[in-house]
Amino acid sequence: TPRIFSGIQPSGGLTLGNYLGALKRFAEKQDEGIETIYCLVDLHAITVWQDPERLRQQTREAAAGFMASGIDPTRSILFNQSQVSAHAELGWILNCVARLGWMNRMTQFKDKAGKNAEQVSLGLYAYPSLMAADILLYHATHVPVGDDQKQHVELTRDIAAKFNHDYGVDFFPMPEPVIEGAATRVMSLRDGTKKMSKSDPSDASRINLTDDADTIAQKIRKARTDAEPLPETLEGLKDRPEARNLVNIYAALSGMTAEAVVGQFAGQGFGAFKPALADLAVAKLSPISTEMTRLMADPGEIDRILGEGADRAEAIARPILDRTLDIVGMVRSR
Length: 334
Ligand code: TYM
What we know:
This protein is mainly α and 334 residues long. It is 54% helix and 7% strand.
């Protein structure tokens, strides 16, 4: 039977990229009746410096973002990673399975470390094997993610295969990345060649789930574009990354295909397309930010939900960790 696992780092505010690439699809999977487990990966967040009080705040805010996006904590399991210690424990075992050469190929590490690879944390380097632990700890079969996480899910498969092979077992199933929809890679509003990211220094480059209606509309109005009207077909957007990005966002928010969006706006300029996109974005996103504000007014309730989610996650994870420790040859006497 399928089981879905996915995670988001509470290392900053949630963006439209997180919503279209992840949260919206997480809610759809839940609504299809699949077993869904969603995790705020706070242990991953501290691979780069996080102010403790802000981290706590952002974890609660991200939990509110999940619920405001349609994740129902009674139908999905919603929890923060550090409350289920099995993640860190399996992460260590997988550190001993994964190879340095595999880690060296991770493009996200290379991007984040930049020229400063000697100064980043050891945790940032090991990040992908903790992510593998997240997924394998639940024997998850499907992992919905944005395009940028594909390499990490493929590495998870390599780690699972090596574990099974080394210990001569058929224990960890091979998880599949699920990358679907019109906006698997939402780009910056200021530069169509860069990913929209919570860590971009320019706030105008992204839409935050907490932005109010005026801010959303203004950011879309000021989004960088070219001066050409929209073409008749998608083919005509090939070398127009900013235009293509806005079309993809429109498609994902409206549930249309990108082809249909281009068809509808063919021949029109951004003077017409941007206001339509702004209206759509405000209609879809401002109820989310309103609901987040409402939920954030009761942090005690959010903590209760995360604690209950952690109990349910632990009930699945602990027996799988126990079997892993047996397979690896650890004495188990209590
Ligand atoms: P993170 O926190 O960077 O992003 C969370 C999810 O949002 C997607 N995403 C995007 N999708 C489309 N366009 C964008 N601009 C965009 N920005 C972010 C990401 O692809 C991701 O699906 N390593 C993961 C967190 C993680 C995880 C896991 C995911 C830890 N353990 C286990 C799946 C399974 C990360 O940093 O995501």
